[in-house]
Amino acid sequence: TSSVCTVTTSGTVDILKGGTCTINADQSGGISGGTSYAAASQVTQSFTVNKITQTISFDLSGVGSKNTESADFSISATGGASGSSVTFSSANAYCTVSGTTVHIVSAGTCVIAADQAGNDIYSAASQVTQSFIVNQFYSVTYALGTLGTGSVPTQSGKITGGTFTVASGSCLSRDGFSFNGWKDASNNPYAYNS
């Protein structure tokens, strides 16, 4: 099995790659002390050559807080010595991966898988997965309506679980009225500075 192993004339076995190494033993015939000997029957022995295990080191703990408005970002990992690059893929629909760039799709838990192929010497690395939370980002805008005058407060944003202070509306006015607060699209009241 010369693609897996070779044997030198001195009997040293050189391993070339993983697989099954089969070695043949032969002895020719001849005459010794007046006795003639036939060639010995060939004997073969085989053993398994295991490939070297390789491991991926992959950690997303440093990606920080992400939300549905977060910009694309890069990831990296260190693999084994096979020379094959570590490849990334998304394990669900909350994010996508193109090369080493992650794109947020929607709120949820983004799971990214890292893989590395093997070769003749090294086995493929076991897949490693890492995950991070993607929070929903909400835009908060204020509308003047049709009766007041002035300029509305600027837009702000929040993510799930976050808080914000309702704007005071100090830039708004209407003759004969004082500003008490805001109402949302469902007519729910929100006091300013709450």
Structural features:
mainly beta; four-stranded mixed beta sheet; 194 residues; 19 strands; 40% strand
Please give a structural write-up.
- With 194 residues, this protein is mainly beta.
- It contains no helices and 19 strands.
- The strands form 8 sheets. The protein has a 4-stranded mixed beta sheet with strand order 7-13-12-9, with no helix packed on it.
- A hairpin with a 2-residue loop joins strand 10 and strand 11.
- The protein is rod-shaped.
- The termini are far apart.
- The model has no long low-confidence stretch (mean pLDDT 93).
Strand order of the largest sheet: 7-13-12-9
SSE run: EEEEEEEEEEEEEEEEEEE
Amount of beta strand = 35-45%
Terminal Cα span = 79 Å
Extended strand count: 19
- The protein's oligomeric status is single chain
Gyration radius from CA atoms, angstroms = 36 Å
- Whole-number mean pLDDT: 93
Spans of at least 5 consecutive residues with low confidence: none
Assign the structural class, choosing from mainly alpha, mainly beta, alpha/beta, alpha+beta, or little secondary structure. mainly beta
